[in-house]
Amino acid sequence: MSKNVFIVSSSPRKDGNSDMLAEEFAKGARDAGHAVQKINVRDLDMKFCSGCLYCHSAKKCAINDDMNALYQDVRNSDVLVFASPVYYYSVSGQLKTFLDRLNPLYTLDNRFTEVYLLSSSAEDDARAMDGSVSDIEGWIACFDAVKLKGVLRATGVTNKGEVQNTPYARQAYDLGKNV
After folding, report:
1. Are 152 and 117 in contact (CB under 8 A)?
2. What is the spatial distance between Cα 101 and Cα 96, in angstroms, rounded to a whole number?
3. Coil, strand, or helix at residue 7?
4. pTM for the full model?
5. N or C: which end of the chain has fewer CB within 10 A?
6. What is the 3-state secondary structure (H, E, C) of 78-111?
7. 3-class DSSP assignment, residue 170
8. CATH number among 3.40.630.30, 3.30.300.30, 3.40.50.970, 3.40.50.360, domain 4-177
9. Residues 109-150 pLDDT 10s
């Protein structure tokens, strides 16, 4: 059964390690016959959430930027994939801002039930990603019937594109292929 997969790459670097993991996941999902949409947060005109809660009654955000155009695509996806480098043992600020701006979805019936995290870090210890996993689990906890289905912890990758020459690239592809 074909699924709609929505991938959010929050790497500030084009072809950065987490961005490459997102690309590999997308290839795997497409090869398995799924519909894939990938966005790069760095390309969005996206402001910070103001906490006004306008979205809870209006079903959209009061801030007029690129996020309002994405809500329907996110809502109608079966699978959400978040790709992020680890910064100070957490997801990137870009991804955190994106997650905050998904607040209009909180009160709606959404289709997505599966979430994946693709994380890259210069640290060699996989525990360096624990904060990122916790960030995503906290977001997931706000939605009924949504589960964290997979986490890829790409450790020891520092230089731009370095992950491509590691087993992590294949693991990201396999995660996408088996979604």
Report:
1. yes
2. 9
3. strand
4. 0.97
5. N
6. CEEEEEEECECCECCHHHHHHHHCCHHHCCCCCC
7. helix
8. 3.40.50.360
9. 999 999 999 999 999 999 999 999 999 999 999 999 999 999
